[in-house]
Amino acid sequence: xxxxxxxxxxxxxxxxxxxxxxxxxxxxxxxxxxxxxxxxxxxxxxxxxxxxxxxxxxxxxxxxxxxxxxxxxxxxxxxxxxxxxxxxxxxxxxxxxxxxxxxxxxxxxxxxxxxxxxxxxxxxxxxxxxxxxxxxxxxxxxxxxxxxxxxxxxxxxxxxxxxxxxxxxxxxxxxxxxxxxxxxxxxxxxxxxxxxxxxxxxxxxxxxxxxxxxxxxxxxxxxxxxxxxxxxxxxxxxxxxxxxxxxxxxxxxxxxxxxxxxxxxxxxxxxxxxxxxxxxxxxxxxxxxxxxxxxxxxxxxxxxxxxxxxxxx
Amino acid sequence: xxxxxxxxxxxxxxxxxxxxxxxxxxxxxxxxxxxxxxxxxxxxxxxxxxxxxxxxxxxxxxxxxxxxxxxxxxxxxxxxxxxxxxxxxxxxxxxxxxxxxxxxxxxxxxxxxxxxxxxxxxxxxxxxxxxxxxxxxxxxxxxxxxxxxxxxxxxxxxxxxxxxxxxxxxxxxxxx
Lengths: 313, 176
Prior knowledge:
The complex is a heterodimer. By secondary structure, chain A is mainly alpha-helical.
């Protein structure tokens, strides 16, 4: 049983999915630190509110200054761009992880910790362990499987463990409280204002959220078709949350989609279609000057649909 | 397209892995494994991290990021209690007390950050001067603040419906 559990962590998955993951997630991190989560830059003027996290104290990390914040930011951006381009993925990816970790520590040392970053941090930590991965490569590897599995577990743990945080901080009667009333009141939108006049909707919503969180690990037990349906359910939940209270777990949602869904199929399909359009070379060899230098050649145009051996859910 | 023949699995369901693809891809169809050391190190890493995350869920707090609890919206509001909202107000030479926006680009902080440090502001009201300094640095074209105050506004609930509010002054800072 232990052996089976260990093997589950190393279920081979396509290296190509790792490649897709890298491109998207590293570019997202660049966008995040420049436009979404540039809070650290603003904290250059609120140094007196700095309250270091435990890990900052353990590692004796310095208090953020404008110089340090800028240095970390641009180190992060440079390493992410290199990683997205596939240049020295182990080194650049490791630097990106360390820089983003420091970025988070700096940002969260002013009284507010964002809880949608764990899956992203895990992704940044494990992606460099895969080494070189090409989009056209149809090889499966245990390294890719482990990395993607770690992100999958981090995503599902976010849901599952948050239910227990509700029990811990809100009590077992959390679902019968008025937490969503508070949330909607503080951050209402045109889609949610009416709910304050129909409070049973929010009451029912709390029960639905708790049940969804507690049942999240089921995703690893069901067949692929149902797994994809659950991914869709989680994505719909996050879209609804954004519409109702303008909170979006964007990095978490991106990791959810990229780790669970067979994104490599889209890439393979696109590459095969492109090759076919370029003169009938149906993917038996890479197109001239194609990006997949050294990549394994694909089979027939129908191969992407037939092959995908390891959905790796 | 014929369905793949059963063989040891490369998918999550524990079924047999699909057969190698046809064509040149067959040469690279065999999954690449990991060394025993590589597997061991990876298993130890994920076991330790999961253990810390689980422990943190029950015994730690945000302070222990990244292994703190996922406590977003975990506190329970009494359906007949109150909803607490922090209000930041400022005044200038020419303008009386007015609401200030919680925005990193304006006041240098967001609402959640201020609410997370309310006890500290209550213990040392002079910390509110940070808001005035941040605003002066980030919005120099605006009239400088001569006072900042932090208020807890309690919106009253009756069976989950809003029913009025009351304000509690937390801290006040006035420029010397």
